[in-house]
Design goal:
By secondary structure, the protein is mostly beta strands. The protein has a domain of 63 residues. Helices cover 11% and strands 31% of the residues. It has a five-stranded antiparallel β-sheet with strand order 1-2-3-4-5, with no helix packed on it. Strands 6-7 form a two-stranded antiparallel ribbon.
Length: 127
């Protein structure tokens, strides 16, 4: 897992430590406080390298094996997004996709805002 996935799964860590051992720098995120279980999530680079859980009864559980295979960003970016056959749509049966239009208004100019009303000083003010 990467940092973003851990934050999504466990939330932001209440405590962080940065250390090095055997000439490898790592960051450890600590979740929980005694007397509850405490999880130590160790990152080497951008990936989790180790998860250590200290249980209430004093047992220590250490996991170092890769449990999730992450797709590389280059492969994911090259693959076009596939659209499900029965994807929801607001088009009516037989209605074609509208042609792609450039961003902005006509000829690339920004679209106009809604009607404007003059302020007491006579200057136009958007609604």
């Amino acid at each position: 897992m990467n940092r973003e996935m851990v934050i999504y799964a466990k939330g932001r860590p209440p405590k962080k430590l940065r250390e090095h051992a055997d000439e490898v720098e790592y960051e450890e995120w600590i979740y929980g406080e005694p007397p509850q279980d405490v999880d130590f999530v160790r990152f080497v680079g951008e990936e989790v390298a180790r998860v250590e859980t200290m249980k209430v009864g004093g047992q220590k559980e250490i996991r170092t094996e890769r449990e999730v295979d992450l797709p590389t960003t280059a492969v994911a970016a090259d693959k076009p997004q596939e659209r499900p056959v029965n994807a929801p749509t607001l088009r009516r049966p037989g209605e074609d996709m509208p042609e792609a239009r450039p961003a902005g208004g006509v000829n690339g100019t920004p679209p106009m805002s809604g009607p404007q009303r003059p302020d007491p000083g006579g200057n136009p003010v958007p609604n």
